[in-house]
């Protein structure tokens, strides 16, 4: 994720935390233990600036509660970190899970504690219904959606657009039929693709499908109320093929599209300037900066253009869960669900909150304010990354399931119906049943 310019708002938040730490330090020097409550272990994937910012939020909780919190880095594979600890009976008190599908697996195994009434009250007061449902498994609420990644953005080089005389499009038709050809005619390759990482291709599909088929159909596909051979899936694949089947629109043609991963695809736009656009989430900003670009100036983004009636808003993110019966763990979840915690984190930058009561003005830059506003405006029509909600063997495993099948489609987009059938076979196997295709 990117590390935004933090501005005066972050300075005020840091000053508040520093003052609190100084007060606690003075208390300790006077022989009084400021931490007279429980000791909690919290595990998350964040490192560097992301970890530091989260630890400042945890410091506010420590100040208010008297509990001591220790942070542990899970590494990139959260499941690999948690597995041995669960077997040994040494689970963290609170963990940040990167996928609702993983949360459901742990809930079904009995590894999670349901949210307390206090936490539920905070969630009900601050989150739209969709986010509440996302943290629920079989009618029991386990998770608090804590940190979001906006995955409905196309990043571009303004210089390339100026050379071609084009503006960011509002619709997918304008993107494919107007902007992309104009860029190509001006000598600018329209897209850098990140196809060697299959997860980026699932994100392409999800944005097209959500906008084209609509939120209700998106949910039906997730719940297997319709099969992956449904006409809506085939149509979405055909829409993707409008770009993926045209080698001239992708840097390096098909071979380059399939052979380039993230973040090298970002470097293709902002480092070597071999392409004008790259699709991916708000976290592209950090890679663009590493390539030498200045976000907001020579690295800009527009929302994924509308394929249907409305532009899509797809989010990824992290869900906070309690993995022990420690009462203080529920207190921490309740605190993290408050606008106070979300605002303190938002002021530091590099963070987007799904909490509906975190004011957009809390964010330190106009770009993130715009992202937050789009999430608020989408309301219950916002959707979480589809593949991350599916069984991991189908939706989140390198070399298999959606990742591999969509890579096959990027290599050869000539038969959407056959790809839809492959997706259905993979889905049926992952869910442990046969095809659920209806007659629609």
Automatic annotation (TrEMBL):
Cited InterPro entries: Bact_solute-bd_prot1, SBP
The entry's keywords: Signal, Transport
Signal peptide: 1-28
SUPFAM superfamilies: Periplasmic binding protein-like II
Keyword Signal: yes
Source taxon at top rank: Bacteria
Listed PROSITE patterns: PROKAR_LIPOPROTEIN
Signal in keyword set: yes
Family, similarity comment: Belongs to the bacterial solute-binding protein 1 family.
Protein name from the UniProt record: Extracellular solute-binding protein
Species this protein is from: Lipingzhangella rawalii
């Amino acid at each position: 994720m990117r590390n935004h310019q933090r501005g005066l708002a972050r300075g005020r938040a840091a000053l508040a935390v520093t003052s609190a730490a100084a007060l606690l330090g003075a208390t300790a020097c006077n022989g009084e233990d400021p931490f007279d409550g429980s000791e909690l272990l919290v595990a998350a994937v964040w490192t560097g600036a992301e970890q530091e910012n989260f630890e400042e939020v945890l410091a506010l909780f420590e100040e208010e509660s008297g509990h001591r919190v220790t942070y542990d880095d899970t590494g990139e594979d959260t499941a690999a970190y948690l597995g041995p600890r669960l077997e040994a009976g040494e689970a963290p008190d609170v963990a940040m899970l990167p996928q609702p599908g993983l949360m459901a697996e742990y809930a079904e195994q009995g590894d999670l504690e349901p949210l307390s009434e206090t936490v539920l009250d905070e969630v009900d007061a601050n989150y739209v219904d969709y986010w509440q449902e996302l943290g629920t498994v079989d009618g029991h609420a386990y998770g608090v959606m804590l940190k979001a990644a906006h995955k409905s953005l196309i990043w571009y080089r303004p210089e390339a657009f100026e050379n071609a005389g084009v503006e960011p499009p509002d619709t997918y038709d304008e993107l494919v039929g107007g902007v992309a050809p104009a860029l190509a005619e001006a000598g600018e390759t329209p897209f850098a693709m990140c196809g060697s990482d299959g997860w980026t291709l699932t994100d392409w599909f999800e944005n097209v499908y959500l906008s084209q088929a609509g939120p209700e159909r998106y949910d039906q596909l997730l719940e297997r109320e319709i099969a992956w051979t449904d006409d809506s899936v085939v149509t979405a694949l055909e829409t993707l093929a409008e770009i993926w089947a045209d080698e001239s629109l992708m840097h390096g043609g098909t071979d380059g599209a399939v052979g380039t991963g993230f973040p090298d695809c970002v470097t293709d736009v902002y480092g070597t300037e071999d392409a004008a656009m790259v699709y991916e989430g708000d976290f592209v900003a950090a890679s663009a900066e590493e390539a030498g670009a200045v976000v907001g100036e020579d690295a800009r983004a527009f929302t994924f253009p509308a394929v249907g009636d409305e532009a899509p808003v797809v989010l990824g993110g992290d869900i906070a869960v309690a993995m022990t019966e420690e009462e203080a763990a529920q207190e921490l979840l309740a605190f993290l669900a408050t606008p106070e915690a979300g605002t303190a984190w938002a002021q530091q930058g590099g963070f987007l909150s799904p909490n509906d009561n975190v004011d957009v003005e809390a964010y330190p830059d106009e770009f993130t304010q715009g992202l937050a506003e789009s999430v608020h405006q989408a309301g219950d029509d916002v959707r979480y990354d589809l593949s991350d909600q599916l069984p991991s063997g189908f939706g989140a495993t390198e070399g298999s399931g959606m990742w591999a099948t969509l890579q096959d489609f990027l290599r050869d987009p000539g038969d959407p119906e056959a790809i839809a059938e492959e997706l259905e076979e993979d889905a049926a196997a992952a869910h442990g049943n046969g095809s659920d295709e209806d007659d629609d």
